[in-house]
Design a protein that fits this description.
With about 110 residues, the chain is mainly alpha-helical. It is about 85% helix and about 0% strand. It has a single domain, classed as Serine Threonine Protein Phosphatase 5, Tetratricopeptide repeat.
Length: about 110
């Protein structure tokens, strides 16, 4: 099978994102963040804004689990802006939910 063009990019992005998730689940955080960073760079290059927001949200989750709440918040907020611009309502809801949980963890209840 010879994959070229948008299909090949989609497969590559899906693979990188999947590897990032697997590394995260296995506790290999540095590798997860590395794969997510690669996927994020590609998504920015190809202009896939909703997927860019999804990866930012995933990166926020990793930071949140490491109790790096300011890093998590920053990634969730960036994801939220992108998802709103893209009109991706379900992904926007996910970013908002994660942002809310981060505020709760930080004791920011206002």
């Amino acid at each position: 099978m010879n994959l070229q063009g948008p299909l090949a990019i989609g497969v590559a992005l899906g693979t990188l994102a999947h590897l990032g998730n697997l590394h995260h689940e296995e506790g290999r955080i540095a590798e997860a963040l590395s794969r997510d960073a690669m996927a994020l760079a590609i998504m920015k290059d190809v202009g896939d804004r909703p997927s860019e927001g999804m990866i930012l949200n995933s990166i926020g989750l990793v930071h949140g689990e490491r109790d790096e709440m300011e890093e998590a918040r920053s990634h969730y907020e960036a994801a939220l802006v992108i998802q709103r611009e893209a009109g991706a309502r379900r992904l926007e809801a996910s970013a908002l939910s994660n942002l809310g949980m981060t505020y709760l963890e930080q004791g920011r209840l206002e």
